[in-house]
């Protein structure tokens, strides 16, 4: 959409006002200068800043500003001139929302979960990008055609990874064992939870690969934590606010490991949008806060728990051999129904891949494919 009206400068030149897409936006001259998209300010290859932003004059001003096609032509009081594409300004001034843009929130009536083919994603960049886009958008992907050997998912991890190693090793078994070191390795049902909130950093993505699933029960449950947080904010704003402020601790200990971290059950980014959920009844250790604050926290936690365990938000899946779930551990709450081994064997394998490598792979693939289309 074409901007309406000319850009206006404040009397001191330190603010620029522009009507863009039927909304009025204000930009600081100093911000425009340190973000100037030219080769003198930003490295053309990496996008890293070449000027020392902290050394720019605090009273830096705009000497001139005018529309020049699809860009703003700017000249600053330090003599620097640049063209700032309007598309970049639009990207920076997106309206605030409960969650970051590009996500599709869902509930228990999700009819068709996002799906991908293991073989196609391993062999083709288009299919791999589609998988990663769905993972980013929905918070999980159901992958089919995974080889049913113990390292069957490794081929796809190698395309995205690396594999995150923990005190449990790399890819670990998820099956009932004697003297289980974690409740995952028992037959009991598991409440909705996020994995390993006691680690720093918390693993970004969970890869859960089914080798055999003939036991009675053992269905996986999935809940969109972003949607649960959004509903809590709408239905009980005080509870939402409490869960963004109070940071309980989380702890895991065994004979060789002692892990501790902390964080709110609902974490916001710098723009007030939900960026992470934590929930781990088994490992949470809230401090002995003042009684009134604890009462508020316990009531807020109960309200969140009732949402994440509700039929309204819960999707049920039973994995078949050769299927795999990739789940966003910052967003998805997952659990399972109890199972009985009398019906057969249940054997899954689980690994972690970090968030940064996954996001990087998606963005690099998108850029490469866009460049290929431009050349073609």
From TrEMBL:
User: Which GO terms of type biological process are on file?
Assistant: carnitine biosynthetic process
Any Pfam family from its record, for instance, is GBBH-like_N
Keyword Lipoprotein (UniProt): no
Task: Note the coiled coil stretches, chain numbering.
Answer: none
Gamma-butyrobetaine hydroxylase-like N-terminal domain mapped to chain residues: 9-90
Which cofactors is this protein said to need?
Fe(2+); L-ascorbate
Domain of life from the UniProt record: Bacteria
Alphabetically ordered keywords of this record: Dioxygenase, Iron, Metal-binding, Oxidoreductase
Q: Name one GO molecular function term.
A: 2-oxoglutarate-dependent dioxygenase activity
Occurrences of domain TauD/TfdA-like (ranges): 117-352
Write out the similarity annotation: Belongs to the gamma-BBH/TMLD family.
PANTHER family (UniProt xref): GAMMA-BUTYROBETAINE HYDROXYLASE-RELATED (PTHR10696), OXIDOREDUCTASE AIM17-RELATED (PTHR10696:SF25)
Put simply, this protein is called Gamma-butyrobetaine,2-oxoglutarate dioxygenase
- What does the record give as the organism's lineage? Bacteria, Pseudomonadati, Pseudomonadota, Gammaproteobacteria, Oceanospirillales
């Amino acid at each position: 959409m074409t901007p309406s009206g000319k850009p206006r400068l404040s009397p001191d030149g330190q603010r620029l006002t522009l009507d863009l897409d039927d909304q009025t936006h204000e930009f600081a001259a100093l911000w425009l200068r340190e973000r100037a998209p030219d080769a003198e300010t930003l490295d053309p290859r990496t996008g890293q800043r070449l000027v020392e932003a902290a050394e720019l004059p605090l009273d830096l001003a705009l000497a001139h500003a005018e529309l020049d096609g699809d860009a703003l032509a700017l000249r600053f009081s330090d003599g620097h001139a640049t063209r700032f594409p309007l598309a970049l300004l639009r990207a920076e001034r997106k309206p605030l929302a409960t969650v970051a843009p590009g996500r599709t929130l869902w509930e228990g009536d999700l009819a068709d979960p996002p799906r991908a083919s293991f073989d196609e994603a391993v062999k083709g960049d288009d299919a791999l990008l589609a998988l990663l886009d769905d993972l980013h958008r929905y918070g999980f992907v159901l992958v089919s055609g995974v080889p049913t050997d113990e390292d069957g998912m490794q081929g796809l991890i190698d395309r995205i990874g690396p594999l995150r190693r923990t005190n449990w090793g790399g890819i670990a078994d998820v099956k009932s064992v004697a003297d289980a070191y974690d409740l995952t390795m028992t037959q009991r049902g598991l409440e909705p939870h996020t994995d390993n909130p006691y680690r720093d950093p918390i693993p970004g993505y969970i890869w859960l690969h089914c080798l055999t699933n003939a036991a009675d029960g053992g269905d996986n449950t999935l809940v969109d934590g972003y949607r649960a947080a959004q509903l809590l904010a709408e239905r009980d704003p005080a509870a939402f606010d409490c869960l963004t402020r109070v940071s309980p601790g989380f702890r895991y200990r065994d004979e060789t490991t002692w892990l501790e971290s902390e964080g709110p059950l609902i974490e916001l980014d710098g723009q007030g949008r939900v960026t992470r959920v934590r929930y781990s009844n088994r490992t949470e250790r809230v401090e002995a806060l003042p009684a009134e604050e604890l009462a508020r926290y316990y009531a807020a936690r109960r309200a969140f728990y009732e949402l994440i365990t509700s039929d309204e938000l819960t999707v049920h899946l039973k994995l078949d051999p050769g299927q795999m779930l990739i789940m966003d551990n910052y967003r998805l709450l997952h659990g399972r129904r109890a199972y009985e081994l009398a019906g057969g064997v249940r054997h899954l394998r689980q690994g972690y891949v970090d968030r940064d490598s996954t996001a990087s792979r998606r963005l690099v693939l998108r850029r490469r494919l866009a460049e290929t289309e431009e050349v073609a």
